[in-house]
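Example record

One chain of 188 residues, shown exactly as stored in the release files.
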Amino acid sequence: MTFDYQAARLTMVESQVRTSDVTDLCVQDAMRLAARESLCPPGRKDVAYADAEIEYAPGLWLLRPRAIGKLLQALKPRPHETALAIAAPYGGLVLKQIGCACDEIAADKTPAKGKYQVIVVEGAVYDAPAAWCAALAEGGRMALIVRHGPMGKARLYERRDNRIVWREVFDAAAPFLPGFEPKAQFAF
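Predicted structure tokens for this chain:
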């Protein structure tokens, strides 16, 4: 018997994504088509659509469907926008399904300055790196999770009038991206 990944994708959107107030039809439709299982390591494909983070490489995780759906909705991606997926293979796959021209890089790489209208990051950081903010074009948006404790906040960063502004959009928990954890500090 083979596993029906298409049915699992539909169930994920209906039971995890839509019920978490992801109402953007472009995001919903793209998540119904993006083959999340193709990003999972052998032996983990059967949990691709579970309500869980999935480690796809040492220290790198696909976010829960709810979290990545809400991040993408906050970005309001539209076809033909230039996008960047930072350590975000599923986010990049969904953006491509929407019709964005999407580049993908590892978290430790420096993106091109001022190029992207949409940036998504799958994993938590202690602070948004300046190089990632610099990659935003005027009017560009970046969604990521910032953690200063066990829980984090999803933030939407925007470049407006050549300044970076941000706002919190929802509570989220996600594993830290390797190298983006809080720095150890001496304290008495």
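Notes: Helices lie at 5-17, 25-33, 65-75, 89-98, 130-134.
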